[in-house]
């Protein structure tokens, strides 16, 4: 196998973006059917899709020419590109020298979407006659030379794009390599020559800690996608993905605990991908996955599942005394007794943030900028000290409600109706609780420690 070029790159081209869209299935226009070589199997090669699309495009304008094309992900039980064929294709045609473009979507052997769009007028068209080799030919070259394999998380199977680079038509075969890294093989469709081969290499990652004795930074878990760190009284817990690949970081989830300040780590026996981790006031570890919440997660103990939902948990909040609230499928599930019993509450509006207080009151920031409070089976609207802008975020901290709004932090203690505010140099877009510390994240990436007497950068 030829050695890949070790390049890290960003996929920003339009044709890559359209690989994974499914926009074109919205309506049908002048549906045409193409005969398949395998009976009822309506998967098409690239050239078959181009033939079908070109017929429709030249009925729109006789001068229509190929601009680019790409296969599109789908859920049909087909070959997923293994033989060079896909069910779904998106093709852009243009009239050379004009801004007239025609976008055509093909699915299951039929034209299922036709849309006129405006594009640049100074680009080069691709001549159909220049495509001597089809996707069915080029996939065999990519497999043989690079052992290219099918993607199986973000983009399933093999995908194909047709574009023009430096005046040369190029077909790209997309898959993964033996290390499960997102890989692209560029080939000349006139002769099958490989013009370039690239794969996406994970870069960075790991857990960074400050060694105060040596005044140095130590890096551990290098190359791993560390999603978070929770700190207990004498414990550290970190979680994420051991070996991120393609565009997915949920392949090899890990949850590890350290009882010696991060010098050594031990795996905790939860195999699902973790979304939230926290310690309650008794130093007991709680863990949330996409649909579940677990308590008593620790070495030598049996974790207890205290909540299991059918739909994903969209928002999760917990107070300093570990009242918990979770939003899923327009319902807020809340508990005031560490998960022994749960109450269900219907949200009145679409929300942007969810909080719960030590008293068990639920606070939500709605999409239209209101803050609502749920107490004794009733929602009420919180009177805000400003009316000109919408809040960016809210947090409940130490029996205080904290609101980030433009260049100010507004603070209200539950026992006092008066609001006070702290001026901030940057606009804070997010508020984050880490243990008993409240942090603000600015729109330019600055981190502020909010001490309620002022701000620390």
List the helices and strands and how they pair.
Blueprint: H1 14-19, H2 46-60, E1 65-72, E2 88-94, E3 100-107, E4 110-118, H3 135-146, E5 159-165, E6 168-176, E7 182-187, E8 194-199, E9 207-211, E10 216-220, E11 225-231, E12 236-241, E13 253-258, E14 266-267, E15 274-279, E16 285-289, E17 292-295, E18 304-308, E19 315-318, E20 324-328, E21 331-335, E22 343-346, E23 351-356, E24 362-366, E25 371-375, E26 378-381, E27 393-397, E28 400-405, E29 408-413, E30 420-423, E31 428-434, E32 437-442, E33 447-450, E34 455-456
Antiparallel strand pairs: 1-2, 1-5, 2-3, 3-4, 5-6, 6-7, 7-8, 9-10, 11-12, 12-13, 13-14, 15-16, 16-17, 17-18, 19-20, 20-21, 21-22, 23-24, 24-25, 25-26, 27-28, 28-29, 29-30, 31-32, 32-33, 33-34
Protein name: Photosynthesis system II assembly factor Ycf48/Hcf136-like domain-containing protein
Keywords: Membrane, Transmembrane, Transmembrane helix
Q: What can you tell me about this protein's structure?
A:
With 457 residues, this protein is mainly β. Among the domains are: 46-199, no CATH class; 203-308, Thrombin, subunit H. Helix content is 7%, strand content 41%. It has an eight-stranded antiparallel sheet with strand order 4-3-2-1-5-6-7-8. A four-stranded antiparallel sheet has the order 11-12-13-14, with no helix packed on it. The chain has a four-stranded antiparallel sheet with strand order 15-16-17-18, with no helix packed on it. A hairpin with a 5-residue loop joins strand 19 (315-318) and strand 20. The longest helix has 15 residues, at 46-60. The relative contact order is 0.06.
